[in-house]
Amino acid sequence: MASIFTFDHDPPRVNSPWQTAQESGKRPQVERSVTTGAIVESDQLSDSHLERLEAEPQDGPIEYKLHLLLRPRRRYNTMSTALKVSGSQQSKPMREAKQPKQSGLPLSSSSQTTRQNRLHHLTTQLLWRLQQSSPNHSTARRDLVIPRLPEDIADLTALEKPGQLLPGLEESNGALYEIGVADDGTFIGLTKDEMDESMTTLKVMAASLGCRVEVQRMKAVGTCEWNDSTSESEGETRVADLWVAEALVMPVLNIEGNRNGQQTDQLDATPRRGASITEQLRVSLIGPTTSGKTTLLGTLSNGTLDNGRGRSRINLLRHRHEVASGQTSVSETILYTRRRKQRLSIAQELIGYEDQRIFNYNIDNINEWPDIHDRAEKGRLAFLLDSAGHPRYQRTTLRALVGWAPHWTFLCIPNEDGPSTSGVHSLSGVDGALGVGIVSMDLAMAHLDLCLKLAIPLAILITKSELGQMATLKEHLAIVFTKVKAMGRTPKLLTSAARDEDNLTEVPENDLRKIQDEVISPITKSGDPLSIVPVILTSAVKGIGIGLTHALLRSLPTPPIPTARDFVPLALNPEQPAALFHIDEVFDMSLSRAQTITTSGSGESAPVVTGYLRFGKLSIGDKVVLGPFPGDDEDAGALVPNDHPPPGYGLSIPHPSSAEFARLSSRHTLSASKVEGEWRQATIVNIRDLRLPVQTIEAGQAGSIQVVFNEPNAEISDSNATPGKPKLSINSLRKGQVLAVPSQHMVDTGLSLQAASSLIASFKTSDVKSLTVNSLVNAYVGMVRTAVRVLRVIRQRTELNAQKDPTEDDEDMFGMNDHIELERTRSEADLDEYQAEYHVSLELLNNREWIELGSQIVLVEGGFRDKSGLEGYVGNVIEIVE
After folding, report:
1. For 164-214, how does the pLDDT look when each residue is reduced to its tens digit (9 = 90+)?
2. Which architecture characterizes domain 288-555 according to CATH?
3. Are 535 and 494 in contact (CB under 8 A)?
4. How many angstroms separate the CA atoms of 730 and 682, rounded?
């Protein structure tokens, strides 16, 4: 199963058949107005020696057309190209048509219908060619906009500004039309009026699909002679040149007015066309290994029950070793100079809902995610992210919980009989592979504790409910309920008597009503989505609880649209950008021909960044900044490799007494104002919202964005860098960076985004005081995962301590007032400790990062094999040190 952001297909490129080995690069652009009839002389054009083209390919975006007329051609006396005719419609062009009717006479209804049918047929052919050059387009049926006849269009100049682009064509490389050319490549040619009429027809066709037409070249290939039969000059012999033309039909990627900065208020006031308006729910699936997360996800997304041997999850696995082991695990290993970086195979799936209907791969005509978008347009989309459960890959769990900022989290706990363990997990298996011992309840509880600390809306799914005994189930539920109630949240156990093995395409009415009464109504009444924790018994084999799970995904509340002021007010953070996109993955994708022409880019590919839009709005054509990149005075290589395996499971952070630690600690941090090249300017050329090509992505939505850097040196590879001096390139893009639009205040005042080299975080838990000064820990802030050094841990004064005279400690130099502390009651001391707040100063060791003030931070220690790796400290960033 490919990543949600992967562009699956490699469509045929739009390569002109006129291109020869002697030509290089770009074709000449020829300006020609079909309304004025201005034609460039043939001796001013290239390819004057070319007499014919290669035969028309049967597939691909090239289309040979003898003409695009909606009427029969006139009868010619002679044509210099007549003997070369073969192919398109008839063997001899002189036999093609009868005399045309007088233009002043009204057309009959039958003739009008014939012309309309031909125009519809030609438009369908154009749509097919445009789809052939698209890397991915929806297979769902769409209503084609039938174009009007040219005479029915009052203003033909309106064709230069086409309407809304037909969905699915946003990434098309275009379609190339060779007009006046037979199927075998022979030049037949059209007269000036026939060529103008054909071009007008092509523009009408293109405009109905949201595309425009550009004439690439035009060439005179012969002459013709005919008798004029008009009333004014009846019987007069006319002679004219015969022309062939090449026209490129391209999708219009930018909405006029947005590029020029106009109609800004209107765009902000109303949702812009081209953006997905379907409600999106982002859910992370977490849980210990072998808890059945991927199997359950396969049942929900494929609409088929499992056979007990992994049938429903097999389509979600990407690699052969995963199929063999049955574990979602390592997908590839990339060798670095000192360490290995391991990337994980994480499944992501999309499920659509509208009323009680479920739109997944079990529905006919749904093969790709754009099909699900189409079917659930007026309903809801549930975006589910799987994660690895083995403790060695705990960073993927934190990535799913912290990095992706899920709206809800589904914790999967297996109901399996087995001896309880102490939390120790075997990391070595047979043949040296990653093995998993008995799944312990301790690891599941570590996941639960982390979710409760992060204050994320939570639902618990008890998987494999058909396997364990009732006593085991009661024991597990008792532990879960105790922990949930201890955090002031109410667990709700939900069961369903119905089994859905025979009906997986609709959400049962009873299950919807139960979720509404037991979960949604209490949450709505309290106004707090954290107040209720649904607990559902499920089985991917028997179908138990599948309907309830679908009802939960269909009905769970989503948070309000995020804004830039959710964490801190404007007064505390005036440098907040207008839009912020967190980058999770980076890869390259070829630019379409339309994008290359629009951006005047010379490269064949451009970087694509994936992630989610925290707040704001991004549209194709917007000018953005990306970063932070290593500055000219900084070491471009990471001091600690990004995404290194967590300490204690294969790698360890250097000990404070080691030379390696001294090297990291001696890193010199620069002020943000002194770092040159830290932020790079770029232009957005392509956007996908969960694989759906769109013009605009809204706040809170996940997707991928393709950008073209504005700097001329952005496309220089690292191999061309000067020895000893790091060179920036598109390869410098990495996980944890951000894509942003500076606010108007920042533009007016000349401010820029500031990266952090250190920060201060607040933790309202006494456990954080166990952190040792100068120790190294892993920090997770948004998509950023980095090693940090603990500079200091300071306990803040509470209300109880504030009542104490600050001079008492100074006056009691010899501890004579110790009895005062002894007189304090035990409850006061416990309350004081419970309300304690600690400020921890941290120094970033990998790279300078952009960290949002007020965002949540998780610190995870390493080096202990007797822990799950999820025992973290959760706090908030209160100060950024640049």
Report:
1. 777 777 778 889 999 999 998 899 999 999 999 999 999 999 988 888 899
2. 3-Layer(aba) Sandwich (3.40)
3. yes
4. 11
